[in-house]
Amino acid sequence: MIAPGSTIGILGGGQLGRMLVLAGRALGYRFHIFEPKGPCPAGMVADLEVNADYSDEAALQRFAEGVDVITLEFENIPSAVLDRLSAIRPVLPRTQALHICQHRQREKDFLQASGLPCVPFAYADSPASLKAAVHRIGFPCVIKTAAFGYDGKGQIKLNAPEEAADCDYLWNYLERPPRVVVEKWIHHVGEFSVICARKADGTKITFPMAENVHVHHILHASIVPARVTEATQTTGALLACKIADLLDVVGLIAVELFLDDDGQLIVNEMAPRPHNSGHYSIDACLTSQFEQHIRAVADLPFGSTELLKPSVMINLLGDLWAGGEPDWDALLADPRIKLHLYDKGQPRSGRKMGHFTLLDDDLDDALACAEAHFAKLSGTVTLKK
Ligand SMILES: Nc1ncnc2c1ncn2[C@@H]1O[C@H](COP(=O)(O)OP(=O)(O)O)[C@@H](O)[C@H]1O
Ligand SMILES: [Mg+2]
Fold first, then answer.
1. What is the pLDDT of residue 38?
2. Domain 7-91, CATH 1.10.10.10 — does that match?
3. 108: which residues sit within 8 A by CB, 6+ positions away?
4. Would the CATH topology of 7-91 be identical to that of 188-378?
5. Considering the domain 188-378 in this protein, what is its CATH number?
6. What are the tens digits of pLDDT across the range 236-280?
7. Using CA atoms, how far apart are residues 86 and 72, in angstroms rounded to an integer?
């Protein structure tokens, strides 16, 4: 057990790291952050922030020696770095889970080999093999770079064969990646996610399934409880637990799911860390995803994930800052709302700057009011009912 008072190292310094620190502080832990990009949201609330490149071996060594255990808030960390750090201190989740989840081809191979439901897919490593892969999968389909994609980046949706006529152009558009995955575009009735926390001894606990609304491929809202049958919620939780066991996760695994027209859940992708669709848990669950992650990594007993109230979480992207700092008065004056801002300096378009969660016993009311608040902030109504 990593006792309270110990120091936890976090690789990555974004908002997920920040919320991990804020949750872990309440349990008496100290935090060191390793973030190559300079002053960061997690560093601002941590005991120490190291800004060095992942190729700086001396900085990695010093960082590892200064902490009791290492975890991460970002999965795209080079395997060599994880191996180097694990030789000095435990790195949780372990390399294998990260290695699989950070690469769409390995992720898809893992799902298929494990007999888990996933979308039909094919691989390509050149414009010519892309053409073959696209025609094998059919239309509509989506091309995704195998590594380093997030928030829909590195993806192209193709609706019809003529859009795949010039595969050289598509390949260049994707910046000539080493490899891509081509997926059948699934017509789905909704997107959902389940987060499972798991300890080294295999103890697991899941969070209530979230119903997720994406706008321009970026998560816009999470609605909890998800408006699906009990059976679908149970299936989602079982899938997340099975994946957590197969990957031997210590910490969290977030599983993104599609519900297809036949009522079947299909795994889209996994992330071995806290997830944007679990932010509702900070205010709406007895134990948040961030606290649960710290408990798993420190080998403490899990807290209850019971949902205290129906909730709707809405992301606040940099676009809202186009005319300067948004006017938070109406949001803050609504007693059902909790506002979270990440103190990121530059409010770029599409950048996650904060979120709010509205809690109300009536989920329909929560959704309508959260939408109304968001519309007022953004000056436009972007949400579909
Ligand atoms: N095969 C697919 N069928 C239908 N929708 C998809 C498919 N792949 C991606 N999408 C849509 O694009 C969003 C982002 O894709 P995803 O693979 O989750 O990448 P990331 O979240 O890493 O950007 C998904 O949440 C979903 O809305
Ligand atoms: Mg995704």
1. 85
2. no
3. 118, 121, 181
4. no
5. 3.30.470.20
6. 999 999 999 999 999 999 999 999 999 999 999 999 999 999 999
7. 13
Contacts for 351 with CB less than 8 Å, ≥ 6 apart? 317, 318, 344
CA angle 259, 113, 237 (to 5 degrees): 40
Q: How far is the CA of 228 from the centre of ligand 1 (A)?
A: 20
- Which listed ligand is nearest to 120 at the C-alpha? 1
Q: What is the pLDDT of residues 91-135, one digit of tens each?
A: 999 988 999 999 999 999 999 999 999 999 999 999 999 999 999
DSSP state of 111: H
Q: Check pocket membership of 183 for ligand 1, CB cut-off 6 A.
A: yes
Domain ranges of the chain: 7-91, 120-184, 188-378
Rounded to the nearest angstrom, the distance between the alpha carbon of 343 and the centre of ligand 1 is: 28
156, 268, 315, 352: residue to mutate for ligand 1 pocket, most atoms within 8 A of CB: 268
Which of 119, 180, 217, 275 gets mutated to test ligand 1 (max ligand atoms within 8 A of its CB)? 217
Calculate the average pLDDT of the chain.
95
Task: Tell me which architecture the domain covering 120-184 has in CATH.
Answer: 2-Layer Sandwich (3.30)
Instruction: Confirm or reject: Cβ of 370 under 6 Å from ligand 1.
Output: no
If you average pLDDT over residues 346-358, what whole number do you get? 96
Question: Around ion ligand 2, which residues have CB less than 5 A away?
Answer: 256
